[in-house]
Amino acid sequence: MAEYSVVGKSVERTDGRVKVTGRARYAGDLVAPGMLHGKILRSPVAHAKILNIDTSRAKALPGVMAVITGKDFPGIPFGTRPDIRDQIPMPITKVHHFGEGVAAVAAVDEDTAEEALDLITVDYEELPVVLTGADALKPNAPLVNEFKNSNIAYTSDFIFGDVEKGFKEADYIKTETFSSQRVTVGFIEPHACLAEVDPSGRVLLQGSKQSPYITWRHMCRALDIPLSKMRIVNPFVGGGFSGKHDPFDVDFAAVRMAQITIVLSRSS
Known about the structure:
This protein is 23% helix and 18% strand. By secondary structure, the protein is an alpha+beta fold. The strands form three sheets. A three-stranded antiparallel beta sheet has the order 1-5-3, with helices on both faces. The N and C termini lie far apart (68 Å).
């Protein structure tokens, strides 16, 4: 094997040394001059109409630079396929799950941002909850998404051969229902990002993303900006396991508040 430089040899990872020496910078490590700190207020209920969001006290708190809700976005839904574009950056008329972000604040420091969240009042009208796929398929099931008249996002049929003929010719047919435990993606690094807007209005988003191109296209659509007006740079990702392909409310909130605060800084 002496004639090979790679095959059969121990090859050092290109990112190995910078990570084990602690020099790798992750999304949560990013800082910028004059950086504001953002926090998101999340829903305490799983399914409810949003009757009103009062952000007046939060906006009046010294040190708070921006407060946004779903109404501060264009309201354009996004999604991986054209026929299932049913997501928006933040909810406008109702919340769809426990913990969904309903408002966000940007302040001069983290403590002020946290305090501002406590000053936001949200009036909810709770709705029936759909907890399983079987419940969602019932004829009178509550509609989870306001952009669709069905709880079915899309269907895909995989049929090979004549299934009915196969059943008729089968000596034995057994029907079972299988279930498994709930599975969710878990990673050490939380969602975090840093958004900046330059004087021309071009956005720079740095965040813990596994698929920057997916995030880029979805965000430009939902923010109603050209693809040329946004750039995404990935720092080191501290674990993803397929859970960081799409944009999240933290990404949208950071960009929107960066857009708002740069306008404020220009006008002042």
